[in-house]
Design a protein that fits this description.
Layout lengths: L3 H10 L1 E4 L5 H20 L5 E5 L2 E5 L11 H6 L2 H10 L11 E2 L3 E5 L6 E6 L9 H10 L4 E6 L3 E6 L10 H9 L9 E5 L4 E4 L5 E5 L6 E9 L9 H4 L17 H20 L1
Antiparallel strand pairs: 1-10, 2-3, 3-5, 4-12, 5-12, 6-11, 7-10, 7-12, 8-9, 8-11
Length: 277
Amino acid sequence: MLTSDQIEQYELYGFLIIDDAVALNLVEPLRQASNRLVTKTREGTWPHKRDAGDGDIWGVGHLLHPDVCETVFAEYIASSMVIDVVADLLSVSGAPEDTPLQLELVNMLVNPATTDHQIGWHRDLVSVEQSSQDELTALLGARHGIQWNAALYEDACLQIVPGSHRRASTQTERATVQHRPMEALQDQLVVRLDPGQGVYYNANLLHRGVYPRATVRRTLHACMGTMEGSESREDLYRWLSWMTDASFGETLPERLRPLHVNFMQMARKKIAAEDSD
């Protein structure tokens, strides 16, 4: 599905913008479902949220949970715009039933209602507080999967430092992340998305989020990886403990069911390892 140039760009710069990340026929149903879920979350009837302070929110979690009652989110995740892109970026091939990919987090990023919000510079899975050599070793050894933002409305909230997933942080970057995380970094880029566009990016890019209250944001934020790649994410199955119910798989589109089986196998392996300690 992706060209060799696109894959090379992702490897080199750590991100790739996809124009048709959301199928045209799904944009409006996803908007409607997202708006309903944001309303529930703001009203307090959906508890899985990211808190922006004073009762406000900047995110909504667990979009595939059966209690959300919005099947269009699973329909989107099951689409070739998601699974085929992830498979290409992770160099995964084979029949859908034989895929090593596993189902993971599916969340949503939203605008706060009352107060502007922002998140400081960080890498998701590698700490800049370790030595430069240890940071670089961790970065070069990381193959955790893919995460992405798919915009349902115009979105210019994500800021990244392209290529920073391939090198240790500079002294200036390290000081900024640790002491001035909201300040600008040299070579930073604002990722601008039109409705239906998505950005697939390496979670270990230096990146941050800016959430202005005045701009409507409904951006699907998800990750997907291989069973092997999840070894470094110790808490993944705990965050998604509700997905360990085997009956959950029966609610999913056919193409997602093998990915749920893989998640279940990973979770059982983690639980067995903990029980043996």
